[in-house]
Amino acid sequence: MRLRVIKAYFLKEMIELIRTKMITMPYLMPLLIVILFGYGIKMQVTGVRTLILDNDNSQISRKLILKFEHSKYFTTMVKNISEKDGLREIKKANIDALIIIPSSFEKNSLKGIKTEIGVFTDASFPSRATTISNYIQGVILDLANDFNIDDSGVININTRNLFNQALRDEEMIVPGLLGMVLLISPAILTALIIAKEKEMGTIFNFYSSSVSKGEFLVAKLSSIFFLVSINIFIVFLVASYLFDLPFRGSFFLFWLASEFYVFVALGFGLLVSIIASSQIVAIIVTLMLTIIPAFMYSGMIMPISSMSGEAFITAHIYPVMYYNHIIYDTFLIGQGFSSSTNILYLLLLFTYGVILFILGLLFLKKEIK
Amino acid sequence: MKIFITILLKELISFFRSFGLVILVIYFFTAEVYVAATGVEIEAKNVALGVVDKSAGGISKKILSNLHSPEFKTPKFYKSQKELSDAIYNKNIMVGMVFDEQFEKNYYKKLHPTVNILIDSTTASQSLMAIGYIQNIVMKFNNLKLPVELKMHKLFNQNAETKIFMGVSELLSVITLLTTILTAIAFVKEKESGTWDIMLLMPVNPKMIILAKSLSQIIIIMIGVVLSVGLVLFHSLDVPINGNLLHFFILTFFYVATTAGIGLFIAAVSKNIMQISQLSIVIMMPIIFLSGAWTPIYAMHPLLQYLSALAPLSYYIEGCQSIFFRGTSFIDLLPYFGGVLFLGVILYWYGFRKIGKLF
Lengths: 369, 359
What we know:
The complex is a heterodimer of chains A (369) and B (359).
Chain A (H helix, E strand, L loop, with lengths): L2 H17 L4 H17 L7 E7 L4 H12 L3 E6 L3 H9 L5 E5 L3 H7 L3 E8 L3 H17 L13 E7 L6 H32 L2 H6 L4 H30 L8 H25 L3 H18 L12 H9 L2 H14 L6 H24 L6
Parallel strand pairs in A: 1-2, 1-3
Antiparallel strand pairs in A: 3-4
Chain B lengths: L1 H16 L1 H21 L9 E5 L4 H8 L10 E2 L3 H9 L5 E5 L3 H7 L4 E7 L3 H19 L5 E8 L6 H32 L2 H6 L4 H31 L8 H25 L3 H17 L12 H7 L3 H15 L3 H27 L3
Parallel strand pairs in B: 1-2, 1-3
Antiparallel strand pairs in B: 3-4
């Protein structure tokens, strides 16, 4: 390792990145992803477009409608149309739920005869349909109070939402997005920067010069590492100020884990670039390797504890889950270094990075195949 | 006309000879759709549940016996509330239930018995749904003498299976991305390999070349769509089709032509394949994510709702969901056809003009 050579190579890389405008890649793309997904993905269901067909038009049915109207979860319309037309509205995707109150609702319910309320939900978006059904059930059960039923023996549920009391979507999604962009952008950039040399043929400069494999890699990777390291702070600021996320944990842990994670991402890119001979292949292979784990096996969309079998094992093979655990901890939970899981995962990330780097070093050839 | 067909065939042959691209297209239309559909589960399934039971155990066991698969994993028991919250903090479990000493006594004496529930609400929608499940189960257990009964119908997808929805959504995203990239590549590859000059020298109307080239890519995509719908959607994922499949293919054809217009525009402004991939990501990502693939448009920020009206994909997605799931009749589908066609004509015309300037 000659420091002078590395420095020269590092400078060359930086200048090249700036001149080819590739420098926008590590900054523009992650920001775009975080902002789009952060604002675009809404898991919480509000403003369900509900159509109520009130065939009874009595005191109780009006009370029920009022309950729907006062809830922030529903945007209620009351219309006097037939059931068939109501179903057609669902088919036209104008409404999400149709509630039909039968004509003898008040009479029967006061006599204590069971009445059926028909509820139709549009399950073409399945998870929303489940949530909507749950909401509607909640509203109807709430109506029980109006029937003066003795509820002293009824089991109450006292729910505490830990870490994210208001159940804000941003707090659920944005930390996971950081885990996504800090993997994808360095990985793509690394894969590209080496594949580009191969495609242009400038890789022969390296083959024929006296620069060693180690020096070559350190110089190439450290320039990207440096650029992305700045980005760690940018995405942090975006998350805390634009999306107004709380930060409850240790910033040092966040920073350290992010740097290790970027190191892992560089390793990914490096391995891809060894296989890929052209830039386009490099991009596609990296995207395939990174987007799926960053999305599915990260615990962002589906919690790791709910996984079973293969998915559970796959999630543990990819590094994203470890980083996400730490990052959710630093933003929302706040255990920091006091949790042994955090420290274990931090070490795992580091080892992961080292292993990838060594593999890259082993497979990188300084000659034409 | 003969020239048109010759160019068309030339494009198709050169596509099928480029091994990498063929593999890529097949991968995206089959494996990618399948993996996305079966891999992502937004419904709360297999929720890891932890329990601290300090009551005598009679009532609590009865309640717990109702929490079973597929919604819940077998509950893990913890000795103290401290252990339970540690497990939640370390994400070993997602939901914790605490029955205190007084619980059973209160239940029999009718003194408002209470179950405490702790939920890790960092994990997206699952925590919300898990609360919903537990509430419903406890409510059923309470057996209130309510004179009202709900008759729930989940239309179009009774078991609320995510894979059906995700499979279709993913296919639509794949169509969008591949059409742009393939169309753009078809033009820029010639620029890169220098055959562009030969094109310019040929005694052929440039309009003909553009039309034939973009049509060839549209044909490739349509073949991919047929494969994907037949093999992946219908065969592997058991996606129902409640509408008319022909409507879907017509709508898809219009939509692919629209997207090819965006591809033409990208091809016109980029010099090499590298720039295509960057531009496609920058242009297509917003279109894909603001089009209702993940969140219905009416649930988005009002500003984004206006923007998504400009994205052809938003009409296409809604239209396809209507065809596949809702089984909407042709008359009610017209707005989607209209939206796609209107934006399609503009985008294709613009792309056509833009790339035409290079001739």
